[in-house]
Design goal:
The structure is a homodimer. By secondary structure, chain A is α/β, with parallel strands linked by helices. Chain A folds into two domains: 14-188, Rossmann fold; 189-268, Rossmann fold. Helices cover 51% and strands 13% of the residues of chain A. In chain A, helix 1 crosses helix 8 and helix 3 packs across helix 4 (107-119). The longest helix of chain A has 28 residues, at 14-41. The interface between A and B is large, with 40 and 40 residues.
Chain lengths: 276, 276
């Protein structure tokens, strides 16, 4: 059969992605405004809360805020199920929580949000206002995510969370180039699409070569550690039923290295930060 | 062939274990004295530092100190390789570090300890005084561990670290039953040996049934999460070359659950704490 057409990045809505990207700039402004409100009101600590994939996604913001924040800035990444069981001794009615739920119904997050609201803690959520979590936090504290995994939902969540967290840093004098960050990321979606297209042949090659491996390692660190977990656990384990082992580059040499043998693909997510 | 002798818990030096246990009580007193010195001098934050297995082992103490500590107690579990790359914004010359190295030469820990000493940070180590790390921290700040994996080294490390950390809590008024803890654990080693013996037939059964499984899951949480990692990574991956996937019970339902299928053993480490 003759090849009559080459379909680029299949099952990916390119136009929708770019449209979402444009809309995201406006949504980002809303996130920034929420951060400004928090900065004006004051806060004693920032809690980033998720479960599973949302916990992974918020890890990069925890990394950035702790890296660039001043000594007195308290930022904690918490897991909703663990918080429900244990609470957190540093959380008070002056604390602020950022959470996310694509479905709008994640039970652990819903339970936590209700308890937090009862404690008088300010909660902001990346979720649809009409969902159960959206209703619990209130529409004015919600930012709807235009996200689906088919069109790169994760990176949009990263962007929105960063608009909130990096703005908080900025207001403390810790991230002076916040406006430049917004300006530079405004039209980044076209570039992100181009990167996808350029990577397509390599992705196809990797998939053909390694997709059926019975067990695959993924190594990451620093700002990319959350994404390393997310890719392994949410994309490959949950969605593709692949057996993976993710490990930080810092600990790889303390055990998992022993399992590298012929037939075990090892993927390295190389970042640009000091943990590389 | 007739069975003439039943050897209990093979490759385990029972007498040596009990002797070590007795000696440990004295070593624990030294740990307690070091904690008293730190409490007398004052400190702004406690850092528990390891890599690989030592990081895993210290996780239970981080959990206990954060659980029972007052709101102002700062306890951080840090990874030596990451600290070498990033430092920690809350560490000052008033901070105190507890670390461990069985070999006495762990390169990441050695590098970190030297830098910390240069910063004027107090460092205490569970390691042999004559080792490189022991020399770097000074013999007066070392507590030698009588530990080898064949005779239950991990639990002795847990005990010694707890003598230090729980005593710090006690001196803050947060762990009032410290003396009772010491009293109750003084003769625990015989019980620990009995538990091992009682579990022996079950362990043999589990080993026969599951040892050759190509991939095994281990689920834990709370105080047992560090041990869940340690058992999977250090005991099975590093020493037995087994493929494992360890996962917190809080996140198990957010992805890894999908990989439970016939032939995949799932081990659950059930603790006694609120994360159970």
């Amino acid at each position: 059969m003759k090849e009559t057409e080459k379909i680029e990045i299949m099952h990916f809505d390119q136009e929708g992605y770019l449209e979402d990207g444009k809309a995201l700039y406006e949504t980002g402004k809303k996130m920034t405004a929420l951060a400004d409100k928090v900065a004006d009101e004051g806060y004693d600590a920032v809690f980033l809360m998720g479960v599973g994939g949302t916990w992974d996604e918020l890890m990069q913001l925890e990394y950035l805020m702790n890296k660039f924040g001043d000594r007195d800035l308290e930022v904690y990444l918490i897991h909703a199920a663990e918080w429900n069981a244990m609470g957190h001794k540093r959380m008070t009615e002056k604390s602020v929580v950022l959470t996310a739920s694509e479905s709008g119904t994640t039970p652990e997050v819903l339970e936590a949000v209700k308890k937090m609201k009862g404690m008088g803690v300010r909660v902001y959520a990346m979720t649809k206002p009409e969902g159960l979590i959206g209703q619990a936090v209130g529409a004015e504290n919600c930012v709807a995510m235009a996200s689906d995994h088919g069109s790169g939902g994760c990176e949009k969540g990263y962007y929105l969370a960063d608009c909130f967290g990096l703005r908080l840093l900025n207001r403390r004098g810790c991230f002076p180039k916040f406006d430049l960050f917004i300006e530079q990321t405004k039209d980044i979606w076209k570039d992100m699409l181009d990167i996808r297209k350029r990577f397509e042949p390599r992705a196809e090659e990797l998939a053909k070569k390694y997709a059926l491996a019975p067990y695959t390692m993924f190594i990451g660190s620093g700002a990319l550690w959350g994404e390393t977990i997310l890719f392994s656990m949410c994309i490959l384990e949950e969605m593709q039923w692949k057996r993976t082992r993710y490990i930080t580059s810092a600990d790889f040499f303390h055990g998992t290295l022993e399992l590298v043998e012929p037939g075990v693909p090892v993927f390295l997510f190389m970042g640009e930060d000091e943990n590389r």
